[in-house]
Amino acid sequence: MSLAIVIPYWGLSLLRVLGGIVAVLLPAGTIVYLFLFKMMSFMQSRLGPMEAGPYGSMQLFAEVGKWLQKEDIMPERADKSIFKIAPLIVLSSTFLLIAVVPFGPDAWFTNFEAGVFYMLAVSSISVLGILIAGWSSANKYSLLGGLRAAGQLIAYELPMVLAVVGVVIQAGTMNLQQIVVVQNSGAIFGWHGLGNPYILTQFIGFGVFMIAVQAELTQAPFDMPIAESELVSGYMTEYSGFRFLIFFIAEFATAGVFALIASVLFLGGWGIPFEWFGWHVTGATGIDGVANWMNVVGPLIMFTKMMLLVFVIMWVRFSYPRFREDQLQRFAWKVLIPLSLVNIMATSILKVVF
Amino acid sequence: MSADTMLGDRQKLAYIASQAADARLNVELETEGMTLNIGPQHPATHGTLRIICRLDGEQVIWAEPSAGYMHRGYEKLTEVRTFPQVTTLVNRIDWLGSFANEVPFILAAEKLMGIEAPPRAQHIRTILFELSRIANVSLFLGDLGVQMGAITPVFMAFRDREYVLNLIEGATGGRFHPNFDRIGGLKDDLPKGWIDETRGVMRKLRKFCDEMDDLLFGNEIFQSRTRGIGVIPKEVALQYGLSGANLRASGVDYDLRRDQTIPMAWSKTNFKVWTHPDGDSFARCWIRLQETRESTKIVDQLLDTLPAGPVMAKVPRIIKVPEGEAWVSTENPLGEMGYYVISKGDLGPFRVKIRSASFNNISIVPWLLRGVYVPDVITILASLYFILGDIDR
Amino acid sequence: MAFKPKVPGLVKGLGVTLNTLMTTVTKGANTVQYPHEKEAPPIRARGVIALREDNCTSCMLCARSCPDWCIYIEGHKELAPPRRAGGAPRKVNKLDRFDIDYALCMYCGICVEVCPFDALFWSPEYEYSEPKIADLLHDKTKLGEWMETVPEAPELEAGADKKGKK
């Protein structure tokens, strides 16, 4: 990449860190406003927050201000240090996840070969945070919530991993940037018009991945850990003020980041089919065959695709009642995992044959 | 959806077997019990009900409801008030279907006086009674969604319930506490345009019932959460004194609107009494949905046959109810509600005993909650549908 | 009922929410954006009680029949000039104090109904909340002011007995 100015290494790192923070918080804020406040309200035949700012657009800032000025309550018998660390662990896994998501041909934070592997590993860190949040709260409800969460999140890690394996087999690489390139420069039976977004061939994997993501985010119908009418927020019950805000932001930020990852793996990421512009990325030129303005347009495209996927996630969240814990587990182990294994087998066979 | 049981014998046996297997495992491992307090402050219980459960993992070994957090001393209050004042008070027992609370009390007083309200008053009383039932049960349908985790049905329930409350307010002046029944008839007649408005609202409510069918009852997740959960066999339901939809869900064909003759207009309408053979949570919820639809049809029939005439019989200005005892019970939205009124010839009753439906309905909770999982506890409580004001009075 | 295939129930549920979303976007929500727009309550709505002082004879029927005993009445009798010359002076009632405590009032309407002289009326006004609970005791003047908001009684439905109660 050729830039007009030379930025020292520490400058680049600073840009990356800032970019990462923006990349996590901006989608989180937009998702919270657009989907949680507005879409949920419209689906319930009401208008949602309208007072703070025009059409309630400043509501999120008002909420943040409200949470910040609350008293920091900690239960007496809680395990103090663990209680304080738990929300940070959950949020940190989100920030670690965004590091591998590519936003453009050169707009990436890190670009290493085992991107998918790293992503799947890091997404499991939040499980730890949730578990210790439930345990350290010294509250029976939180404990129940935490244990349920542990069972559920571990159970749904497997379908997620297996669904992604299908994509990796078809792409032939674990590097997320390469996966995007392969999708956008690919062809469907020789026709380059649409690229080769893996949602068409990996539709089973896509379905399994989206269901697993819904479960990983503990959204309805998989929100047993936060079962509001039973456990009053489950593992988050004892948290107030800034700590609860971190959980809240983490939930929606993670939704955004998982949607970004899903759009990278299945929808073609930051790209639009390269044929439309005549870029050729195979052979000598590599990724430099893609124009530079893609670095600016890429994030916008990613944002749009993320919004689409989050719309589906939230739509399902607001429409369905929740599963019971054992039904949840049964669904994961007896339905999703066999399905994703079948998907892997079919993909491998077809990959070899074609 | 018909009333045939969807629960195959194999499914029933499978559920019982899995419960038994878990119980065996718990005994073998000797895991300690954890005492969990559901309530009195809790989003799930309809008010301040406390249920003390002893858990083993996620299963309930022993449960006991501890009511009384909302006891307001109704029966004592009625001893020092006149009949019109007591009518005002009893609105507040079951506050969601409030007109339905006044009716049996007024009927008991009229029984003691030996008078009957004119036919138009009886019709309008029945119409308002059914409107209270619709208001009450549509909130139940919405609340059912919230207990299960679906947050959208409740807003639709409140939205459509507003229409009914506006109707009640247009006729009586009060949305929640109409205070419209008087000994001998009603306080006032209906305002102009009310009948057409009611017909329109009934159409909207039938659409709401269809929406609930699609959004909640047809949902496979909801069905798997409620089918086979909290099965109450017929004999047990009768022994514990359940009433209303809970009883009919266990297969007992008993509806006080049809099975007793009181001076109300139900005998002049054709309606179906819905029963279900299963007795599980799904049956209880499903029956209430069908009954709501049925109520809209009853209201339509009553509006068509509304007779002209006065709404108040000839009663003296200051009413002194003659000495005697009377018991009247009606099919309220929550179940069977009855009043036993003892009068000594004064301005007010000497003693009123209020038989409220929810108090008897939750008596089955200790028997029913043994061996169920914690999420199912919420499902069962939601399907039994009690209101704290009705339990504690 | 035959066995239904698995998907439709879930899909229909999604359809209902999408439908509501589209309806709200195109036709607006069902909610009223209070305080920018206000819904008018029905004519008979029980908002506040208004007092017509001229009609009141301090017979105390309303104060006695209130279930909460929230009406406080004090009055005295005065002598007014006779109607015709040469007649005896007549005793007229003067109200000293007629307070209704809206912190206690349960809006049942027994006082309005029981008054034999039509001195009390219902008005659908509801926006009179106060920061201090003592201000909820409306005195005679304030109750007289509410009289301006009392609407005409609505017309009755067809078939109603016209000579019955209004």
Strand order of the largest sheet of chain B: 1-2-3
Q: Strand tally of chain A, please?
A: 0
The overall average pLDDT of chain B, rounded, is: 86
Q: Report the major sheet of chain B.
A: 3 strands, antiparallel
Radius of gyration of chain A: 21 Å
Class of secondary structure makeup of chain A: mainly alpha
Which stretches of chain B are low in confidence, meaning pLDDT under 50 for 5 or more residues running? none
Helix content of chain B: 40-55%
Report the CATH architecture of chain B: Orthogonal Bundle
Strand content of chain B: 5-15%
Low-confidence stretches of chain A: none
- CATH topology type of chain B: Cytochrome-c3 Hydrogenase, chain B
Radius of gyration based on Cα positions of chain B: 22 Å
Distance between the termini of chain A: 35 Å
Q: Would you tell me the overall average pLDDT of chain A? A: 83
Classify the oligomer: heterotrimer
**Which structural class matches the secondary elements of chain B?**
mainly alpha
Number of E strands of chain B:
8
Gist?
With 354 residues, chain A is mostly helical.
How do the helices and strands line up, and which of them pair or pack?
The complex is a heterotrimer of chains A (354), B (393) and C (166).
Chain A: H1 9-43, H2 59-68, H3 80-98, H4 115-122, H5 125-136, H6 140-171, H7 176-185, H8 198-201, H9 203-216, H10 228-231, H11 242-266, H12 294-319, H13 325-353
Chain B: H1 9-29, E1 34-38, E2 50-56, E3 59-66, H2 74-77, H3 83-90, H4 99-113, H5 119-148, H6 153-172, E4 181-182, E5 185-186, H7 194-217, H8 220-226, H9 234-239, H10 245-249, H11 256-259, H12 281-304, E6 324-332, E7 335-343, E8 351-355, H13 357-361, H14 365-368, H15 374-384, H16 388-392
Helix pairs in contact in B: 3-4, 5-6, 5-12, 5-15, 6-7, 7-12, 12-15
Chain C: H1 7-27, E1 48-51, H2 61-65, E2 71-80, E3 90-101, H3 110-114, E4 120-123, E5 137-138, H4 140-145
Antiparallel strand pairs in C: 1-4, 2-3, 3-5
Protein model, in words:
The complex is a heterotrimer of chains A (about 350), B (about 400) and C (about 170). With about 350 residues, chain A is mainly alpha-helical. Chain A contains 13 helices and no strands. The two termini of chain A are about 35 Å apart. Chain B is mainly alpha-helical and about 400 residues long. Helix content of chain B is about 50%, strand content about 10%. Chain B contains 16 helices and 8 strands. In chain B, α3 (about 85-90) packs antiparallel against α4, α5 (about 120-150) packs antiparallel against α6 (about 155-170) and α5 packs antiparallel against α15. Chain B is globular and about 70 Å long. Chain C is of the alpha+beta class. At the B-C interface, α3, α6, α7 and α8 of B face α1 and α3 of C.
